[in-house]
Structures are given as structure tokens and as C-alpha cells.
Amino acid sequence: MIHLKYDQQLSTSYPEVIANYQKLDSAWPEAQLLEAGLTDCGKPLHLFVISSDRQFDPMQIRKSGKRIVMINNGIHSGEPEGIEAGMLIADDILRNHDGMRKLLENTVVCIIPVYSVGGLLYQNRWHRTNQPEPLNPGYRGNAKNLDLNRDFVKLDTENARSFARLFRQWDPDIFLDTHTTNGSDHQYVITYLPAQHNSMPEKVGNYFSETMIPALYEKMRSTPYEMIPYAEYTNDSPEQGIENYVQTPRFSTGYTLLFHTFTQMIENHCYKPYVDRVKSIYLFIHKLIEFTEENGSRISEVRAESKEQVKSQKVYALDYLVDTTRYQMIEFKGFGRGTDKSPLTGEDRPVYDYSKPFTMLVPFYDHYEPAKTVTAPDYYILPQAWSEVVERLEINGIIMERLPKDTILTVEVYYIENLVWSPRPSNGHNFHESFTTRKEVQPIPYYAGDYLIRVNQETNYFIVNMLEPEGADSYFRWNFFDPCLEDREWFSPHPVLEDRIYKYLTENPEARKKLDDAIAAHPEISKNRTAQMYFVYTQCGLANKWVGRYPVARLKL
Fold first, then answer.
1. Are 525 and 531 contacting, i.e. CB atoms less than 8 angstroms apart?
2. Coil, strand, or helix at residue 352?
3. Could you give the C-alpha distances from 213 to 264, 286, 287, 288, 327, in angstroms and in order?
4. Residues 512 and 455 in one domain
5. Cα–Cα dist 473/464, whole Å
6. What pLDDT score does 182 carry?
7. How many Cβ atoms from other residues are within 10 Å of residue 278's Cβ?
8. What pTM does this model have?
9. Residue 236: what pLDDT?
10. pLDDT for 232
């Protein structure tokens, strides 16, 4: 019924993808192709839902006790094998190929056919230049030339906004994002990158690492496509080991894990034939749904326990370091390395020698410890002036109360210091790479309509990671609060100001003493009127306290 050309080294075009899903929608009452908001190119973000009892409302599906598996394809449209595999798995389930309808007894499958619609509309042979197949890959960026796998926090794209609403509405138990990698070379067609379990809510992370991940490796060993962990080499050498890594909330996996979802990524190996890459990810999706069907009750219990536990959790990790003392030895099947001659210059160039395959045991590092933690307050207070942040919290379903009247609250605030910006823009932002914070307790006026965000929600992981400025991908790091760093008031050393400061010193002996002590410690300012005015203005409480003060305050009851 569906028409694919992956066995001819061709990926399916966007119109063909949607036409295939429309055919399945028309042919089977157990399937619906839904529109879930817009993308940046103006075309809809689609969701294809397969439900054996013909129920397509997520709330009713939840009430029925079924688990939800969500598969996201084409976030980078030059990595399209997931797009093909999604259509294949949908067709086979609906046709009951090899009895696959049994996968739907307690599970609903949701497939995003193409996430970066604008990227797939721009197919070109020379995209993904190191990737020989397919012959017509899409583009890595979307219609705004943004990387959608860096946009799950900042929501600069319509794609990401539509996804966030969709994800929070459906609240999938399992999430898979399909990718292709050219970052390593080895014998495997498929590599596996589950969310790093130590960075997940504890109960979800424990079940993931102890039960689900080992089961999926075992299930794939029964296929022609054994998996290996995504090859993030230690010191660029597989012999020295492979590290999992913490995926921060800008990424699909780092974002979705904040909501108690078992989230993972497949990175197919771009140097392998396209047909094998499609088949391997098809089989992984099959095994993922199979595991969910077999373990649905326990998955539901773990998520419910996790959501309840997090409501009262107080301490959260904001950064992590790999624990190099904890590892397991795993089998790695690689290739020897050597050199050959560059056809352009004749110089030696490094290559993998495919005539020299090898198998060896290497350490796999998959344990991380918190490098920075924070104790959450009872409430965060967000002034309504920061409407872009309010909007993003609302999109993510965060419960917020509004102050009924003007008031003054004594709160804990951060001051941002020693800030280092990224030297170049990244996805439209100059990211705050590093800074320090200093805390003060201050009385601050708030106004009717300002927001109180209570930290007693099942979404606490998201709340803390977004609103603590030192969160790895906080709203502060992504520039949403940058105006707080700028001073709108200053002075020039005019006699009018000098006279005002002199009068202030006369009327405030504590300020006078503070200046005298400064002069004693730094005699060079004794004859410098500008330096003395600057000192009094900045050190004696005259300057604006807003400058450098992070706008989100912490309230402890």
C-alpha cells in the first residue's frame, strides 16, 4: 500500500511521506493522521496514531490503561532512515504482518512522520557530505536554519512549540528519537544512546538502567543488528573506552526525560548501506514496542511512583561528572587504522582499514555523579514582565498562581557575576557558557499578576532546570533574562551630582565612614573626585540594585 524506495538508496520526499500515511489512515480505522500544530515552513506537524480500540484521545487512552510509545523521525532530515522505518512499522502493524497486531493489545503507537518538515523539503545529494547513502538526503536545519535538536528549551521554532504541546498532551511513556551518526566507524549498523540514567528522576532512571536498557540490548542480539552504545570515545580512542553522556534539556532526550519518560535515541551508522540502516531501526522500533507491551504495567507503576516522589524532592542536580571508577567491560567490534594517499595532494591521510576487523573488550562508562546541586525553594517568583518565559512555562504545562494584589516579599535572589558569553552565536543565541552567582536576601515589591510557581509539581525537574540560572540549559543561559545585566542609569562627574553626594555624606555618617575607610585603604582616590563619587554611588546603596540581579526570586516559607 505504501511506496518506499530505500532499497534503491533513495529517501522518501515529504509529499510522498504524508501521502503514505494518508493511505494508511484511509485504509484502517485503527489509525489516524492528526495535525498537531504548525512548523516554521507553514506546513503542519503531523502525528500518526495506531490504536487497536480506535481511541485517539490521549486522556481516554490513559484511562484505558494503555501505554503510549512516541517515535520522532526526521529531526535532522538528512538522517532519514527513521522516516522510512516509521512508515514500514505502521504498515506492518496495521496489516498484522507476522501477527504484529498483538503489539497493540496494551500499547498505542504514535509516530511523528517528519519533525523538520522544512529540512526534508530541501533534499540535495551534497547534504551530509560524509554520508554516501541515501542519494537525496534532506537538510540538517529547519526552515529557519535552526537545529531542532537544540530548540527544546528555547522554543524559537514553531516546530518546537508544536512538539512541546503535543508531548505534554500525550505524555508518552516511551520516547524514541531517530538519528544517524558519522562520528565514528566500526562494524555496527546501529548504536544506542539512551538518556543517561543518573540524570533522570531516580525511579525512572533505576528501572531504565537495570531492566529496560539491558532488555533492549538482548532483544537486538536476536536480530542481524546487534547494538553497541553510541560511540563517544574516551580520548578519541575506542580502545580507551566509550562514555555515555548527559544529554541536557536543549536536546530531545534531555528535555523529555524531565517528564518521567523513558527516552532514548538511535544513531545509525552513516557509512553502512541505507537499506541496512532502515531495517535495523525498524527492528529496534519493533523490539521497543514489544518491550512496552510485555512490561506495560510495571512501566506505568514506575512512572506514577516517580511523579509522586518528585513532588516532594528538595535537592536537584544541575551538572554532572562521569565517574571513571565505575565501568563495565563490553565487546567492541571495530576496524584497524592506517593511512593511504590523498588523491588530491598525494599526502598521507588517516583511514580505517576494513580488511582488518577486530573484536576487543573496552570499558563503558555509564555512571555520573552530581557536580553541582541546588536545594529548591518552596516557590519561584517570576515577574509578569518576563512574558517570553511565562509563555514557555505555559506551553510546558507548568502550574502557576498569580499574586492577587501588590505586595512586598522578602526573598532570596541571585546576582550574576563573572559572566562569559559564547564567542559566536549558536542557534540564534549567545549562550552563557560560564558565570558565578552570589545570593542576597532582599525585600522586593511585586505586583498583582506576578507569578508564583510552587515547587511541588510532578514537573519539578523541568521547573528547577529552567529557573535556576546555573541549570545546564536554563532560560538564563539562553538569554531570556539578558536585560537584567544592563544598567539603564549611570552618572557623569557633574558638579550637581558632586554636591548631592556631599550632602548625602553629611546626612549619613555611616556612608561618610565607609568612604573614609576606602580612602585610607586606597590613598590614590583621596584626590580623585570621580573615584569618590563612583564609590559612594555604587557602594553606599545609591545605585540601582536591579543590575545583575536575576529576576526569578526564591521564596522559602
1. yes
2. strand
3. 10, 15, 11, 10, 16
4. no
5. 11
6. 82
7. 25
8. 0.94
9. 64
10. 66
Burial of residue 255, with CB atoms counted within 10 A of its CB: 0-12 exposed, 13-18 middle, 19 or more buried: buried
Query: Who contacts 220 (Cβ-Cβ below 8 Å, separation ≥6)?
Result: 190, 226, 227, 283, 284, 287
Kindly state the cell numbers that stand for 164: 512541546
DSSP codes joined into one string, 85-110: HHHHHHHHHHHTGGGGGGGGSSEEEE
> Which pLDDT score is estimated for 184?
78
The owner of cell 555515555 is 244
Q: Is residue 305 part of a domain?
A: yes
**Does residue 331 sit in helix, strand or coil?**
strand
In a shared domain, residues 509 and 441:
no
Q: For residues 454 and 494, is the Cβ–Cβ distance under 8 A?
A: no
Q: What is the DSSP letter of 11?
A: P
Do 208 and 290 fall into the same domain?
Answer: yes
CATH number of the domain within which 54 lies: 3.40.630.10
Quick one: pLDDT at residue 233? 62
Residues in the chain with pLDDT < 50? none
Counting Cβ atoms within 10 Å, is residue 309 exposed (0-12), middle (13-18) or buried (19+)?
Answer: middle
Same domain? 532 vs 465: no
Alpha-carbon gap, residue 292 to 306, rounded angstroms: 18
Statement to judge: residues 284 and 421 lie in one domain: no
Say whether both 515 and 407 belong to one domain.
Answer: no
Residue 113 falls inside a structural domain: yes
Distance, in Å, from the CA atom of 333 to the CA atom of 325, rounded to the nearest integer, reads 24
Q: What is the pLDDT of residues 171-213, one digit of tens each?
A: 999 999 999 998 778 999 999 999 999 999 999 999 999 999 9
Containing domain of residue 511, as a range? 495-539
